[in-house]
Amino acid sequence: MLNKAMIEPVHIYILLILSIGFMVHVLLHPLLLAASGRDSWICAIGTLIPLLLWTVLVYMVYKRIENKNVFSLMFQLHPFLSYVL
Fold first, then answer.
1. Is 28 exposed, middle or buried (0-12, 13-18, 19+ CB in 10 A)?
2. 66 phi-psi bin (left φ>0, alpha ψ -120 to 50, beta other)
3. pTM of this prediction?
4. What keywords were assigned to this record (predicted)?
5. Which of 4, 20, 44, 74 counts the most CB atoms within 10 A of its CB?
6. Where are the domains of the chain?
């Protein structure tokens, strides 16, 4: 009997995440660099602060959940917060 390959929701999520990152890199970055010209390094330095804050937030959440399944934690939250996540 042949096993039919199915597209799982995880595969769709990964594809969306990768495609959004690719579109931002290809479409948005050239526009920012063209508009800012020689001052484009300020944009790169300006993104470090949100990146560091995001990294700290992800680390704190990782330490707090202690090897629990993220999807099961989402169902314990308020429905609006679950939808946003």
1. exposed
2. left
3. 0.46
4. Membrane, Transmembrane, Transmembrane helix
5. 74
6. 8-45, 47-85
Residue 78 pLDDT > 80? no
User: What is the number of residues in the chain?
Assistant: 85
Whether the per-residue pLDDT at 12 is higher than 80: the answer is yes
**Is 32 within 8 Å of 43 (Cβ atoms)?**
yes
